[in-house]
Amino acid sequence: MLRILWNIITGIGLLDAMAIPSVDAKTGEHFPAYYVFNNEYHLPPEKSSPSEKPWPSLNGIIYDIKAGSGNEDEINSYFVSQINNGSLRLLADEKIVRDKLLKTRKGQKMSIYDRREFLLPYEMTSRLIDELNNLKLKTTGNKNEFKIERISKSIEKDRFSSISYGLYRVKYYEEKSQRKKTYNDYSQFAFFTSKKSKKGG
Questions:
Q1: pLDDT higher for 167 or 60?
Q2: 164 and 82, same domain (yes or no)
Q3: Which residues contact 95 (CB under 8 A, 6 or more apart)?
Q4: Rounded CA gap, 120 and 97, in Å?
Q5: Which domain holds residue 83?
Q6: What is the tally of structural domains in the chain?
Q7: Are strands 30-31 and 135-139 parallel, antiparallel or unpaired?
Q8: What radius of gyration, in Å, describes the C-alpha atoms of the chain?
Q9: What pLDDT does residue 2 have?
Q10: I need a labelling partner for 98 at 20 to 30 A (CA). Which of 17, 64, 108, 154 fits?
């Protein structure tokens, strides 16, 4: 489901800034406004109602999702299941990658900026692991539902929220694709009728 990669999971404060056109102060380059294709508040005037059909345009790449009583348990449960069954694979640890990079001629010749840019995804992965190690499961007392809470309040869980929301959206598109595939598999039988046997000679 590569198309899900175009979806951006972001916070409301950032959305407010992205929903208006912007200009690069240094280059003067103009950038169009982006919009959330499932939220009336962040839709452009020409859009009368949010819709995922057809697939949103380049400017409508943001999906607004919030965890609440209606979906929080499902989001958390799906994340935990993907971790437990090994479906979620993370990048290597930042320190390991840095050590390997600095042993290469290319890595040694890199500027500080280029090296930082190269290592940034691995650094974010390390920070994600720090966040995950700071989380604990807490039952809510409602059936088998549970919440995920921070052990130390000094460590945020923004990266965890982002990846868990992203996985939840991937799950949506996978299930949608599977339902469509199942429908197409059975649609070939829609007009099948058995022949009635003739009675008598």
A1: 167
A2: yes
A3: 126
A4: 11
A5: 67-170
A6: 2
A7: unpaired
A8: 24
A9: 36
A10: 154
